[in-house]
Amino acid sequence: MDRIQSVLHGRWVIPVVSGLLILASFAVAQIIEEPFWGDVLMIAAAVVAGTPVVIKAVNSLMIRVIGIDLLVSVAAIGAVLVQNYWEAAAVTFLFAVGHALESATLNRTRSALAELIAVAPDVAVVLRDGEQHEIPAEEVAQGETVLVKNGAKVPVDGVVTGGSGALDEASITGESIPVEKTTGNKVFAGTISTGGFLQVRATGVGADTTLVRIIQRVEEAQEAKAKTQAFMDRFSKWYTPGIMLMAVVFGLITGDIVLALTLLVIGCPGALVISIPVAIVAGIGRGARDGILIKGGEFLETSAKIDVVAVDKTGTLTEGRPYLTDVVALHPKFDEDEVLRMTARAEAGSEHPLARPIIEAAAQRNLPVLGLPQHTEPVPGKGIVATLDGHRLAVGNLPLLQAEGVSDIAAAEQTVQQLAAQGRTPMAVACDGEVIGVIAVADRIRTDAPEMVSRLHSVGVAKVVMLTGDNQSVGEAVAAQVGIDEVHASLLPEDKLRIVGELQAQGHTVAMVGDGVNDAPALATAQIGVAMGAAGTGVAIETADIALMKDDLLKLPQAVGLAKRTVNNMRQNIVIALTTVAALLAGVLFGGVTMAIGMLVHEISVLVVIANAMRLLRHHREDAGMDRSASRPAPAAAQTEATTAQ
């Protein structure tokens, strides 16, 4: 019964019934010489196909909107009044067919959203009092243990507390390769187990999951209007009454009512009205499939104009995990291991951000770092001073050594300069007023950072700018290895904000990529703020103009490229729509184009516009190349060292 009702209320019912009545009219006309019954059937076909159109036109007039439906309604009713029944039936039938095809193809452009909804989990297996219970996914409570078996969907956002396995996270991050999960790893609702068995502690349930936030964002984004679309809407409000006025004028001048009615049909701006929203829906849908969430049409359109990308260094261009690179002994009584051991002991009582890599390096060399120093004194902007077994140890920059009264620092100064020139962060070490060595730490440049810069340039970004809190020599060393065009170093958050403002004042459209904490002011000021690795971060998904779900730098040029292709598609659609209307109007005025032919061509143009937009749903060849390069092992040369931010 439900299937029958679905068919009776389907989008194709009206076109099919109207088409059958038209065929019956032609058949009756051939069998019976009396045209009356043929005309009755033709009028019936026009009424069946035209009634929904007239109702919609009346409803629009009630809210003072003159739209396409009014043009078709007036034309069809006029054709009946002048006894041109075939034209009335043909116009309404073709309009109904076009509407059904438009609805079907538009649903395909929204397929990314449908796919997201389809992966939403229905059931969950929870562990309660040692027993497994299968319950609806929305009934899982915060903190409960959920079991994820091979082939099952993960029903909640959570953290793995036991077991191991692999999850297909394509629905969330766009990652095509299953990701291995073990204890401590995050998992997301809607991802699918491809092997293994996981115990997951639920941290996000029901509507508070990454998947639901993505669905909501895509829904809102596909409804949001771009500036061009808003302009086209305003244009349509004047265009449609203009067509009606033109038809009346031509009808009065020529006395040809059929010509006036034909002009109404020809002038329908259907393809023009749909040209922008269909491209936006398809573009945003393609992005969602690839793990790129774009806030709406306006931001999609703005992203196509990006010509400057500003990036933070630490955690964006680099991995954000400093490690020890060098230990240089500068005193005959101390070798490298002793310099490192003493420095690690001093740092053990410090909150210095570089303490961890020094202590870890000492542990890897099996150097004993036992107990805390007797006293530790941080020296802001310079380093630390610690007391170790009666010895005074200073670890920091050269001004710290000078403040400690260390006189002979020439060797340390030379070593510090050499290491800094290589993009490392050096620290001099002095014991009881004498320099004993220099140690250096660095942060690895991300393997995909150079390729990201190259691809940004290839998609039309003129300049990639680094904004960093590190010193100038460190910033320039990283920039040289990555291919950055411009470096601004030793910056505070307010300095980053100022520089973004200066770039905008120069006429640039700026995208800012950062970690969202100390970069927040600059992210808010830039025309496009980009959050990376936003999966599981509700705030980033909600607030960023573009949220890259996977922590993959190559998603950034992919997003810019998608925006440019979408805007180009919008322009192509506008040209197709306007060219079709102009050609049909010329055809009517100079003869040869009838009302039925005009409606047929008009509906074809609508479908051409939709089909053109649907090309955006295909996986672009450049994006496929990015995906392949992102999944390849990085070459050894890319494992370059850089510094950590201070």
Automatic annotation (TrEMBL):
Low complexity compositional bias, start-end: 631-646
Primary site of residence: membrane
Localization in the cell: Cell membrane
P-type ATPase A domain location: 120-219
One Gene Ontology term, aspect cellular component: plasma membrane
Bilayer topology: Multi-pass membrane protein
Similarity section: Belongs to the cation transport ATPase (P-type) (TC 3.A.3) family. Type IB subfamily.
Protein name: Cd2+/Zn2+-exporting ATPase
Lineage of the species this protein comes from: Bacteria, Bacillati, Actinomycetota, Actinomycetes, Micrococcales
